[in-house]
Specification:
366 residues, alpha/beta, TIM Barrel, Lyase, Ornithine Decarboxylase, Chain A, domain 1, eight-stranded parallel barrel, 11 helices, 18 strands, binds pyridoxal-5'-phosphate
């Protein structure tokens, strides 16, 4: 008998959310971002949900190969490019489109062309650091990098790429979004290349930045990239984490629950024990009051989350018993609400789903 903890992936929601991304993007094509096992949803489920995407984008070269082996023939973008010269053979063999974001990568490519005769054709994304200061060539280096790529006979297409730090809050006083956009426009002006800069937040909130390709991630999974709710954007949750009560305790005033006795009862109450803990990906830092649905009723988490269990106050649902259904997040309880309560973001919760959680797919339309 497996544990009752199950994560359900709603394929129809993935398809729907992709169509929302495409609609916002107008004529731009869509890279569906499937890094980190499709934000915890599983690469195979992503392939079903995003079969109509124009391309798939991810970080892990080995997972790009898995996508090819699973039959994906469309473009694949490696968002951080290759990590060592050996990856370049994989890039060529599987026709992957690597980002080139730094001098070391550019040298690796030039060296591979000179010494190993890599012939391509290779499509690449040239990345600009427009102010986020993670990856990318500086505006001063950008044109020279472009020229060196153009000089390589194996390079076919070049797409100019940058990443926005504050598309969800464009008025950020330290780095306003408009400054990054202007930097990208200036750095690439006159260069013969396609362009991409929009993540989910830009796709939803700034359709004028769609350019040639958008790169939505979180929105495809039904999470919101901004303070606005996913439902307001018309997005559907693609992941529901469900479990059951595996224990019930009746406690009285002065009785405590769980490690550290964080929660102490002030009145007689009934406590439900849920089969789900931080080893499953539930955030350990979730405070008392974090919402949990039991038997369809909103309850409050109380006491510290432990490795395999968490505890809830069953006061609003006196009929609850061992075996009662529990929803941790997903349909009926937005993941962003749980994330906010726990001081994190939906992205982190999705990606943290542990391998031991049984994953099933739900092919039904919603
Ligand atoms: C992860 C990622 C995205 C997608 O971001 P979301 O906020 O999930 O939409 C887009 N572009 C790059 C380069 C990324 O690494």
């Amino acid at each position: 008998m497996p544990r009752p903890l199950v994560v359900t992936i709603h394929i129809a929601a993935l398809q729907h959310n992709l169509s929302v991304a495409a609609r916002h993007a107008g004529n731009a094509k869509v890279w569906a971002v499937v890094k980190a096992a499709a934000y915890g949803h599983g690469l195979r489920n992503a392939l079903r949900g995003f079969a109509t995407a124009d391309g798939l984008a991810l970080i892990e070269p080995e997972n790009a190969v898995l996508l090819r082996e699973a039959g994906w023939r469309g473009p694949i973008l490696l968002l951080e490019g290759f990590f060592d010269p050996a990856d370049l053979a994989t890039v060529v063999r599987h026709d992957l489109n690597p980002a080139i974001h730094c001098e070391a990568q550019l040298r690796m490519l030039e060296l591979a062309v000179r010494e190993r005769g890599i012939s391509g054709p290779l499509d690449v994304h040239l990345k600009l650091n427009s102010g986020m200061n993670r990856l990318g060539f500086t505006p001063e280096q950008f044109r020279a990098a472009y020229a060196r790529l153009r000089a390589l006979p194996c390079v076919r297409g070049i797409t100019l790429m940058t990443h926005l730090a504050n598309a969800d809050a464009p008025d950020n006083p330290v780095l306003p979004m408009a400054r990054q956009v202007a930097c990208f426009e200036q750095s690439g002006s006159g260069l013969d290349a396609a362009r991409t800069l929009a993540n989910s937040a830009a796709d939803l909130l700034h359709p004028e930045l769609s350019a040639d390709w958008v790169r939505p991630g979180i929105m495809l999974y039904g999470g919101s990239p901004s303070a606005q709710s996913a439902a307001e954007f018309g997005l559907e949750p693609a992941m529901t984490l469900r479990s059951e009560l595996i224990g019930v305790q009746n406690i009285g005033p002065g009785d405590a629950v769980g490690y550290g006795s964080r929660f102490v009862a002030t009145k007689p109450m009934c406590i439900g024990v849920v089969a789900c803990g931080y080893a499953d990906g539930y955030p350990r830092q979730a405070p008392d009051g974090t919402p949990v649905i039991v038997d369809g009723v909103r309850c409050a988490l109380i006491g510290r989350v432990s490795m395999d269990m968490l505890t809830v106050d069953l006061s609003p649902v006196p009929q609850a018993r061992v075996g009662s259904a529990v929803t941790l997040w997903g349909r009926g309880l937005p993941i962003d609400e749980v994330a906010r309560a726990a001081g994190t973001i939906g992205y982190e919760l999705m990606c943290a789903i542990a391998p031991r959680v049984h994953m099933v797919d739900d092919p039904q339309p919603f």
